[in-house]
Amino acid sequence: MNNSKGDRLLLLINKILLGVIILVVVSPLLYVLLSSFLQPSILLTKGFSFNASDWTLEGYRRILSDGSIMRGFFNSILYSTAFTIVTVTVSILAGYTLSADGLVGRKIFMIFFLITMFFNGGLIPTYLVVRDLGMLNTIWAIILPNAISVWFIILSRTYFKAIPNELKEAARIDGASEFKIFLKIVLPLAKPIIFVIALYAFIGQWNAYFDAMIYLEDRDLYPLQLILRSILIQNEVQPGMISDQLAMAELQRVSEMIKYSSIVLSSLPLLIMYPFFQKYFEKGVMVGSLK
Predict the structure, then answer these.
(1) Among 192, 239, 149, 181, which residue's Cα sits nearest to residue 230?
(2) Do 282 and 163 fall within a single domain?
(3) How confident is the model at residue 254 (pLDDT cuts 50, 70, 90)?
């Protein structure tokens, strides 16, 4: 296809803008990744160096040898996985139910759900509910309070409404129950929206630390993000990472090294997940948002 001069100019401008956006997004990631392998003193004095003697894996060795960070890493995997399973299950079941045309009071239920998107009880009432339910300092305080997302329910409901009713009617004629229709027909067609909700839920819970800071007291239950908060914001290094004889300069050096290495380590699960979810993610977002 022959493009006019105006079209070629527009394509060139688009390519330049996309290149700038990619550069803006990728540059901080590359900076953190390269900084995690460099000696902090070299990074501060010389900047990036490609001299092999200036590179080190000490930050990663200290993280892998430190019990609190690795325990937080596995806690985050546990919390995020359990949270994702609960959120996907509730969202898919609620969305499918609300998509049924014959559901009595469907509009009332939707209004009830929508109100919760704009108004909530606040931090103190929520804390009191969690406390009275006996969930303080337990895994359930991290998983259950935010497991139901109205946005995910609406997204799944919109997706299910796009599935032709003829498929379900044909199954009913063959004698299939509603549960069998959902399990054998609807659910296999819902893979895109399931993976979209799973990805969003996992990322949201993986990056969360506020609920853990409020509801957890035992440091053994802390997720990785809460431990990283102590390192990045409060500039704390766990006693097991360094010996008492190190000077303050060494403490700061180790702290800087651990900061960058911890950020890279905490990003690995998301970077590993996304390529497998990408094809479902694109399809699910487009169908769930446009239909």
Answers:
(1) 239
(2) yes
(3) low
User: Which residue type is seen at 189?
Assistant: L
Distance CA 87, CA 247 (A): 47
Coil/strand/helix, residue 120? coil
**Distances, alpha carbon 291 to alpha carbons 47, 98, 103, 153, 286, in Å:** 50, 16, 20, 15, 8
User: What are 95-129's pLDDT values in tens digits?
Assistant: 988 888 778 888 888 888 888 888 887 888 889 99
Query: Residues, the chain, total?
Result: 291
Task: Return d(Cα 239, Cα 159) in angstroms, integer.
Answer: 51
List, in sequence order, the alpha helices (H) in 99-145: 106-118, 123-132, 140-143
Question: What pTM was computed for the model?
Answer: 0.77
* CB contact at 8 A, 272 and 203: no
> At a CB cut-off of 8 Å and minimum separation 6, what does 35 contact?
43, 260
Q: In angstroms, what CA-CA distances link 31 with 26, 157, 170, 262, 276?
A: 9, 41, 57, 14, 25
For residue range 71-90, list pLDDT tens digits in order.
888 999 999 999 999 999 99
Say if residue 188 is in the same domain as residue 230: yes
- The phi and psi torsions of 144 (rounded to 5 degrees) equal -75, -40
Q: Domains in the chain: how many in total?
A: 2
Of 54, 72, 89, which closes a domain?
Answer: 54
Q: For the chain, how long is the longest CA-to-CA vector?
A: 78
Domain of residue 23, residue span? 5-54
Q: Which residues pair with 38 in a beta bridge?
A: 55
Nearest to 262 by CA among 238, 232, 290: 232
